[in-house]
From TrEMBL:
Record-linked Gene3D superfamilies: 1.20.120.1150
Localization per record: Cytoplasm; Nucleus
GO biological process terms on file: mitotic spindle organization
Major enzyme class: isomerase
Pfam family, one: PTPA
Protein's UniProt keywords contain Acetylation: yes
Function: PPIases accelerate the folding of proteins. It catalyzes the cis-trans isomerization of proline imidic peptide bonds in oligopeptides. Acts as a regulatory subunit for serine/threonine-protein phosphatase 2A (PP2A). Modulates PP2A activity or substrate specificity, probably by inducing a conformational change in the catalytic subunit, a proposed direct target of the PPIase. Can reactivate inactive phosphatase PP2A-phosphatase methylesterase complexes (PP2A(i)) in presence of ATP and Mg(2+).
Name assigned to this protein: Serine/threonine-protein phosphatase 2A activator
A molecular-function term among this protein's GO annotations: peptidyl-prolyl cis-trans isomerase activity
InterPro entries, sorted: Phstyr_phstse_ac, PTPA_C_lid, PTPA_sf
Source domain of life: Eukaryota
Name of encoding gene: PTPA
Organism: Tursiops truncatus (Atlantic bottle-nosed dolphin)
Chief location bin: cytoplasm
Region feature Disordered, mapped onto this chain: 1-20
Length: 323
């Protein structure tokens, strides 16, 4: 545990005052399938997966009710997400013939598109104001697509990238790790679930019953890490309705399962076959390792997902620089 936190100490790039950095508006760099090689060799990929794994280690064996430090930056991020939540209430669904993809979402998104930089400026100190336009792009990318009115793991990855960028410019720090997952990302999930339900958003690139989940992936990774070495709950228990109802407020994984069962009807083994199969894995440690491998293979190495990822100065496309 201590080793995991030691590894997450700020790297040498954070020794350079961020104010001297040339921030740029992130743009797409992965245009064809062969471009995927550039992504996997990039500094962005190394930083992104390192960020995910550091947080995975940070929440290991901890309940959501675990006491952790909440910094001013974390509080400001929660306030930002609360604003997005309030805008949903202010933008009710419209009457339309089609059941899915309510067009009121586009009105909601247009407000975010207009206000994103102002929202990010409430989190970023004034001496880092030059970073705001770059970081705000990832926030706008994290809530779904306004043309298709859909949401998926690529949008979720954009929010993780948004948080990673805030770490790289020093707004979020090493001792914010647990709060990043438990307070900020958990609040993000709540807002995204509300968006999905309110506007009946389509799953982006869903694999149907063969996918882990229609919309999310990261809370299953971090949620399984929370459950490692749990004295009572084993992977087989998450398909037990009683166990989920009793413990979902403590564990992200179980909260995800509860949301699925609320949204889908029929036998769990039929509508969520991949998760059903995971319930047969003997330990949470093995579940966690398997989910990380699956995330790389099914999300980070899939062209339909990564073609939308954007690269700037904080998450650059250039190859990893060797020490």
């Amino acid at each position: 545990m201590a080793e995991g936190q030691q590894r997450s100490q700020p790297d040498s790039s954070e020794d350079i005052p961020p104010a001297t950095q040339n921030f740029i508006i992130p743009k797409k760099e992965i245009h064809t399938v062969p471009d995927m090689g550039k992504w996997k060799r990039s500094q962005a990929y190394a930083d992104y997966i390192g960020f995910i794994l550091t947080l995975n280690e940070g929440v290991k064996g901890k309940k959501l009710s675990f006491e952790y430090r909440v910094s001013e930056a974390i509080e400001k991020l929660v306030a930002l997400l609360n604003t997005l939540d309030r805008w949903i209430d202010e933008t009710p669904p419209v009457d339309q013939p089609s059941r899915f993809g309510n067009k009121a979402y586009r009105t909601w998104y247009a407000k975010l598109d207009e206000e994103a930089e102002n929202l990010v400026a409430t989190v970023v100190p004034t001496h880092l104001a030059a970073a705001v336009p770059e970081v705000a792009v990832y926030l706008k990318e994290s809530v779904g697509n306004s043309t298709r009115i859909d949401y998926g793991t690529g949008h979720e990855a954009a929010f993780a990238a948004f948080l990673c960028c805030l770490c790289k410019i020093g707004v979020l720090r090493v001792d914010d790790q647990i709060a990043i997952v438990f307070k900020v990302f958990n609040r993000y999930l709540e807002v995204m679930r509300k968006l999905q339900k309110t506007y009946r958003m389509e799953p982006a690139g869903s694999q149907g019953v063969w996918g882990l989940d229609d919309f999310q992936f990261l809370p299953f990774i971090w949620g399984s890490s929370q459950l490692i070495d749990h004295p009572c709950l084993e992977p087989r228990h998450f398909v037990d309705e009683k166990a989920v109802n009793e413990c979902h407020k403590d564990y992200m994984f179980l909260e995800c399962v509860l949301f699925i069962t609320e949204m889908k009807t029929g036998p769990f083994a039929e509508h969520s076959n991949q998760l059903w199969n995971i319930s047969a894995v003997p330990s949470w440690s093995k579940v966690n390792q398997g989910l990380i491998r699956m995330y790389k293979a099914e999300c980070l190495e899939k062209f339909p997902v990564i073609q939308h990822f954007k690269f700037g100065s904080l998450l650059p496309i250039h190859p990893v620089t060797s020490c």
